[in-house]
Predict the 3D structure of the following.
Amino acid sequence: MNTEKTQTDLSEQDFVALLVKHEPALRAFARALLAEWDLVDEALQEASVTIWQKREQLRNSDGFLPWARAIVRFKCMRQLEKLRSRRPAFSEELLDALAERGEEQAADLITARGKALHLCLNQFSAEHRELLLAPHTDACSVKGLAKQRNKSANALYKLLGRLRLQLSDCIGRRMTVETS
């Protein structure tokens, strides 16, 4: 029998990056199971601690989301158990059905938003795309871009605000069409 502890191929930094990257999907999944935002927050906080404590179980990044979703589901069920002691709640079968449906809907929503983001970003000029993406990349900051373009940082931040509104409106329109 092999009693050797499994080592993950992921560094702590990579693991934290995965947790941050998938937090919106995990939050959407928890929200499908729990009706109250404070319960969602509590379940995610507990799940994050457990995910961190059990990080050695994960071999690579490919299995992170399903693995983390199972932990979030368990923590949501614990929150529901706490509620049951205070008031009547749904049956376990109904909760399982809601969890499965919520998982599918969360994945579909994230996929649709990603597709809409990609399509909308492609409608901007290369210069505007670079500015929109600058705060989310290590390549360059908005202040750095302002220096490169001989513009004030304030002017670039105002432009970035307008571009973000345009991007948000575009994504909203595409999501409305997608879900209609």
